Amino acid sequence: MTCKEAEQMVMPYINDELTDKELEAFLDHVYSCKSCYEELEIYYTLYAGLAQLDGENEGQDMHNLLQEALYASDQRVRGRKLFNIYYVFSQVLAMAALTAMIVTEILKL
After folding, report:
1. What's the predicted TM-score (pTM) here?
2. For the ranges 6-15, 50-59, 85-94, 97-106, which has the lowest average pLDDT?
3. Buried b (16+ CB within 10 A) or exposed e, 23-37
4. Contact at 8 Å (CB) between 16 and 26?
């Protein structure tokens, strides 16, 4: 992902509009690119500051809010990956069990 692509994803990230695949690529880039992380931090601070004016997140440290949001996003990506692995694994096990049952029935004939 390029910096330009990451910069275009900042507001969709803040508004929780990224797909899991986009989110993973965005997080990977932001964690490895200081410039894009700083850009995200600026926008997130503005967004969180406006939310504080509306009475949300009152008295909370903006930097910590961003860290918590990034951690939650990272957990979402990891959880989805883990779910997909378990799903594929369960499908393979089900197919193996079905195959074993079919072979057993054929051998009985």
Report:
1. 0.69
2. 50-59
3. bbbbbebbeebeebb
4. no
